[in-house]
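lol forgot to send this yesterday, sorry. struct tokens for the thing we talked abt
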């Protein structure tokens, strides 16, 4: 009879941490996204002679890469676990609507000539602070959130909705339905105005306000889910870290551009970008406290069980 096979796990000296875990792909999400962002920013701003403009572009593309790549750790985790338990469906639904509105806001302010002129008239001849990386980020965020929702549909393994969970799901669905009706009515009204460009500019401002409002509430279902389960298993912490980095760099770029041009209307004219960064950082801190402080022991126990199961499957 052949001798039983034993799984071999090499560990880093003095830590007991398996080397395979140390060099796991998920550990490279944060440094990799920062490196890519800086390199892209340097490449695309190589022709800029103004150091301020060049630094702003580097900040912009680094935040774009950090925020954009932040969606992929969760996708990878869902695929790896073949499960979406621990990920709030309500959070993703609100995310989809919010990023859809944010993309419309950025795309029209960046590409639509009449709306761009209307913005200048309203802000003393100053152009909007919306940059190409803002448009790219919001469009990509909308698409990747849609992919995440497809994953949720494919792997759907949530327990049956009861009590508070059922109320929360119905509340979010009713709120999004009511919001859709209001936004459609506002769009029709703006299109019928004599000065349609100014009407659409006002509508885009409403879109940005709604996006900020969604950003304030969208994280709450995920925070509540983590609190109720008393762990963050199934919720990618690398997503949170990249989101925090992206938010801080986004706000830094906005403030730098306003200070560099002595035009602080760039901030008041783009409230979505300012508030989006600050709100995301606020909730990211909550998630980090949940993951690293409140529920760290439970998370480590879950990870240890997963490693044991992995070793058992290899043996």
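and heres what i got for the seq, position by position
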């Amino acid at each position: 009879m052949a001798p039983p096979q034993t799984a071999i796990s090499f560990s880093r000296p003095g830590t007991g941490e398996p080397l395979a875990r140390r060099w796991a792909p998920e550990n490279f999400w944060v440094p990799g996204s920062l490196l890519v962002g800086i390199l892209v920013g340097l490449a695309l701003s190589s022709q800029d002679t103004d150091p301020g403009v060049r630094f702003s572009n580097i900040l912009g593309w680094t935040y774009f890469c950090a925020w954009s790549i932040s969606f992929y750790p969760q996708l990878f985790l869902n695929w790896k676990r073949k499960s979406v338990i621990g990920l709030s469906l309500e959070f993703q639904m609100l995310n989809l609507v919010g990023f859809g509105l944010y993309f419309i806001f950025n795309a029209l302010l960046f590409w639509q000539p009449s709306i761009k002129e209307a913005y200048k008239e309203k802000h003393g001849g100053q152009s909007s602070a919306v940059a190409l990386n803002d448009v790219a980020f919001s469009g990509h965020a909308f698409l990747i959130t849609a992919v995440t929702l497809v994953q949720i549909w494919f792997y759907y393994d949530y327990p049956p909705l009861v009590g508070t969970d059922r109320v929360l799901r119905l509340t979010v669905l009713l709120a999004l339905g009511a919001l859709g009706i209001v936004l459609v009515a506002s769009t029709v009204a703006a299109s019928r105005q004599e000065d349609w460009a100014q009407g659409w500019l006002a509508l885009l401002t409403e879109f940005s306000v709604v996006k900020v409002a969604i950003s304030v509430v969208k994280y709450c279902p995920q925070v509540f889910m983590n609190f109720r389960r008393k762990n963050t298993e199934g919720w990618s912490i690398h997503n949170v870290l990249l989101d925090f980095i992206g938010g801080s760099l986004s706000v830094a770029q906005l403030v730098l551009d306003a200070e560099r041009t002595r035009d602080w209307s760039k901030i008041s004219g783009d409230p979505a970008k300012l508030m989006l960064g600050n709100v995301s950082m606020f909730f990211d801190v909550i998630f980090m406290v949940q993951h690293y402080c409140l529920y760290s022991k439970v998370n480590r126990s879950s990870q240890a069980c997963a490693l044991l199961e992995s070793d058992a499957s290899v043996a």
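The radius of gyration is 22 Å. anyway ping me if u want another try
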